[in-house]
Amino acid sequence: MTDTPRRLPPLNALRAFDAAARSLTFRQAAEELGVTQGAVAQQVRGLEALLGVRLFDRLPRTLALTDAGRAYATTLRRAFDLIAEATAELLTPEPQHLTISVTPSFASRWLIPRLPAFTALHPEIDLRILASDRISTFQSDSVDLAVRYGRPPFGAGLQADLLFDQVLVAVASPLLLARLGPPETAADLARYPLLHDAHTLWPQVLEQAFPAGTPPAPHNIRFNQTALAIESAIAGQGLALASHFFVGDDLRGGRLSRVFPGVEVRTGADFYVISPRKPRHPAPVAAVRQWLLTAAGRA
């Protein structure tokens, strides 16, 4: 079964009528369409003859739409608007969708504050952020790119570029340090709660800061994400341990201060940007990878 062919008047006649209905003069309609006034008048007369309906009353210096002409012009204008919208959508480039998998702490502490710069540079890329501590897979989770903490090698089919060295530092609110005094001795340290994340690396930091030995801290607050421990430190609730690049903006902005200057811990694992060597969307993957490396100071 086939569709019945549509009975449509000539397009040029419809355009001439639409232009004349909006200006109510054949002269202005002719200027808009780039034809002669006589051509517009002829197209409208032909349309009226084809439809068997008078669309205009011809007045001495202008035109007036008949009731039938007014109703037809309104519907015809909507049809032309739909054609214009469909054409604009066809000519607008489809955004390039790309899914990046990151940890929640990386997303909130580093990526999200820099997203305006990314969208300004790459408005053509529709970036979708999958923030999870679960390791996503490139196949089953439709992930194109990932930022992950670990040690190479990551697999023969993967491209991995170092994004950030993992350098852990102890930080606290400057207001808290001013109120309680810097923790220069074990007794000083006892005044501070320690804010823990899931990595439990405080013992290594304290061994460097207090090589003679340290008593256990009187209070410990534990979080399952580094970002929560950092926010707690900014709020003045204790000392946090975090990757330097996670807290770099806060150190520069004065929201946090280093607690033990010169004390750093490296775990041997770092942050890498990872993608398949043969990605499904090569161009946007390459663009996002380059932006990440440039923003991290690696390019």
UniProtKB/TrEMBL annotation:
PROSITE patterns: HTH_LYSR. Residues 9-66 form the HTH lysR-type domain. InterPro entries: LysR-type_TF_proteobact-type, LysR_HTH_N, LysR_subst-bd, WH-like_DNA-bd_sf, WH_DNA-bd_sf. GO terms for molecular function: DNA-binding transcription factor activity; sequence-specific DNA binding. One of its GO terms (biological process) is DNA-templated transcription. It comes from the Bacteria. Keywords: DNA-binding, Transcription, Transcription regulation. NCBIfam families: PRK11139.1. Belongs to the LysR transcriptional regulatory family. This is LysR family glycine cleavage system transcriptional activator. It comes from Novispirillum itersonii.
